[in-house]
Amino acid sequence: MSRAVERKPRVEMAPWTVMKKNSKAAVFNKPRQLIRVFRDGIPLPLVVQGALEALQVALMLALLFVLPVFGIWLGGGLANGSLESSLQLSGQLWLKAHGAPLGISSLASDGVTEVSGLVTLTPLLFPVIPFLLAWRAGRRIARASYADQLWQGIAGALVAYGLFGFITGFAVRTSDVRPETWASILMPVLVLGLGVVIGTRREAGSWSRLIGVESVEWLSQASQASRWAGSYVAAVAKASLVAFLSAIALAGVVLAITLFMHWADGSNVYQQLRPGLIGGIVLTLAQLAMIPNLVIWTLSWLSGAGFSIGIGSQLTPLETTVGPLPAVPFLAALPTGSLNGAWLFMLLPVVAGVAAGWWFMREGENHFDDWLDRKIPMRWLSASLSTLFLGLVIGLGAGLLTALVSFISGGSIGIGRLVEIGPHMWLTGAWIALEVGVGVIIGYLVSPYLEPDPVLEN
C-alpha cells in the first residue's frame, strides 16, 4: 500500500483493546505498554486528529493578536476601554489575517447620515502566519496517516477551522464592524487548506506519493509524444515562475532603495504624528505587514501600469497624479515631482524575461521547436515561430501570476477616497506579459553565445 511516509502504522493495537483483552493485573505486568500509552498518547481517529491540529493553529494565531491588543488596552490606547471591545478587535484582526473582508459603518461629517463600506485591503504578511502554522499541521497529519487516508485528516482540519471562523465572525460583530459570514468561513479554510496540503506534500516528498499514484509507472504508460509535451509544458511553467520571481526580486530591490532614500521624510511623518511608544510600535508593525503589498505595487509601477492610492490618483513611470493622503510614513516614499527618465525602469521586467529565457535554454526542453523543425523544412521559419511562441506562453504565465498577486495586494479601506488602493490586476498582468515575453525572446536567442561550449573547452 502506498503511504505518505515510510514508517510503521500509527499503532499496532489500540490501548483500549489491550485493556479489554487482559485483566487489570495482566496489564500492570506489561509496563512497556503503559509507557508507550503515556508517551504517545491515546490514538485518535484521523478526522479528530486533523480537527485538533486546526484548532491549535486557530488558537496560536489568536494569541498572536490577543496579547498585543490586550497590552494596548492596558495602556489605555483603545478608544473604547472595555475588555470586550479589545477581544472583539483581536477577533477582527484574526479574520483579517486570513484576508476576510470586514463591513464597516460610521456617521458622516454631518453626524446624522450613516455611511458604510467594505474593508478588503489585507497586509499580506498577515496570511503568512496562519499559512506557516497550517504547513506544520499538514506535516503532522501526514506523519500519522497513509497516503489513502490523508483526506480524513485534511477534511477534519478544514471543517474544524471553518467552524472556528464561523463562530469568530459572529462573536466579533459590533455595530461598527460586521464580518461577512461567508468570508469568515471560506477565507480561513482557504488559507489553512493551502498550508495543510503543501505541508503534507512536503512530508510525503512528492505529489505522486501524496495522492497514492506512482508517477514513474504512470509516465511509463504514456507515449513519447505525450512525455515530450508534458516536459515542454512543465519547463514553460517553471520558466514563467522564474520570470515572475525575478521581477518580484527586482521590485524588492527598487523598493528598498526608495525607502532608504526617503528615510528622513518618513521620520518627519513619525515626529508629526507623535504616536507614543505603543502607538509607534503598532504603526511600525502595521507598515512591516504591508511590505509584501508594497513590493507588488512597485512591480506594477515598474511595468508601466502603475497603481492608485485613492480615487483619482495614479502613479506610473510616465505620470503621477496623487490626491490627499493619510499620514502614513511609508507613503512619503511615493514618487513625486519630475520623472524624467523614469520610463527606463520599465526595462527591469524585460530583464526578468531575459533571465527566464536563459533558464529555459539551459533546461533543454524545447520540444515544440523540435516538432516544428520536423514539420517545416525552412529552419529560419521554424526557429522564429518556436521562439515567438515561447515568449508568448512564458510571458502569459508570468502575466497571470502578476495579475493574481496584484488582485490580492490591493483593496479598499471601506470609506472615503481610499476605496481604490493598489494596482489594476489585468492592466498590470498585460504589461508584465508583454515585457517578459520580449525579454524571453532576447534571453533565449543570446544565451547560446553566453554559455561556454564544452567541446571547445576540451
Automatic annotation (TrEMBL):
Keyword DNA-binding in record: no
Assigned keywords, A-Z: Membrane, Transmembrane, Transmembrane helix
Transmembrane segments: 57-79, 115-138, 150-170, 182-200, 241-264, 276-299, 342-360, 380-405, 426-446
Keyword Transmembrane helix applies: yes
Cited InterPro entries: DUF6350
Top-level lineage group: Bacteria
Protein name (database record): FtsH-binding integral membrane protein
Organism expressing this protein natively: Neomicrococcus lactis
